[in-house]
Amino acid sequence: MSMILSTGHVVRHRRWFQRLFRPYVRRKLARTFDGVHVAGLAGLRATLDERPLILAANHCSWWDALMLVALDDLLDAESYCLMDAENLSALPFFGWLGAVPLDRTRPKEALKDLRASAALAQHPNQVMWIFPQGQLYPPELRPMRLQSGVSLLARFTRARVVPVSFSYPFREAPKPAAVVSFGEALDEALSGKALLSALEAELIAGLARNTAFVVGEDQGFETLIGNGRNADAGLAARLLAWFGRGHASKVEHPTLELEEQQNA
User: Fold this and answer.
1) What are residue 100's phi and psi, to 5 degrees?
2) Domains in the chain, ordered, with CATH?
């Protein structure tokens, strides 16, 4: 499927490439993370059936781009993503997945790109991803330094803005977990600085929910991709795991063994 934007850029979804790349991404995420855990997906799908959506996410890791690919597969929507024009030029295959260029070096060109990309978020089941921070920042950064592009894009479309909070915390595993919270769509009456303020508040709330999941206080997450632990384990790792199961009580509770010896 191809579409020519008003800037002259040709958007090409290469279905054959998506069918090859998406399974690769899922395997990569499974091997890298202690699972991919998502909250709010059902509500997002229901809203998407009614309106186009702008999914506005914090940008805290190189992995965010591959997470978008995996989440798009689950949404089964017509998805696009605004991507820095220089990076897209260097990695053109992202264009085959729906990435469209945004020239951040020249404000006038950036405005043209935003107006042009608005044509891709006008109908139900259309999604436009955007990282309003414009570059990588740690998820703890406050304020979050959101840029105005997301509010302009919302003004140019019929889409509602949905906050998406990414984090990659460690739990009781040697690999981090990938945790994603989809928030509720923002009030469509919001615009400009008021929209940015509301978006930042909801992104921070989503990050707090991710933390609550990690410490076991929020059970509203689905594990959409497993951790791939069994697929990665070699013979030595399996032997160690088997041996550990037989000696778990002594390894985990050495003080109990000492007390038993003292009482004998």
Assistant:
1) -125, 145
2) 2-229 (3.40.1130.10), 233-263 (no CATH)
- Amino acid present at 102: L
pTM value is: 0.85
Distance, in Å, from the CA atom of 99 to the CA atom of 12, rounded to the nearest integer, reads 9
Residue pair 93/83 in contact by the 8 Å Cβ criterion: no
Q: What is the torsion angle, in degrees rounded to the nearest 10, for the CA atoms of residue 72, residue 187, residue 217 and residue 28?
A: 10
DSSP state of 2: E
Strand runs (DSSP E) across the chain, as ranges? 2-4, 10-12, 36-39, 53-57, 78-84, 99-102, 126-130, 160-167, 178-182, 222-225
Query: pLDDT per residue over 218-262, tens digit each?
Result: 989 999 998 765 444 445 545 545 545 554 444 444 333 434 444
| Residue 141, Ramachandran bin (φ over 0: left; ψ between -120 and 50: alpha; else beta) | beta
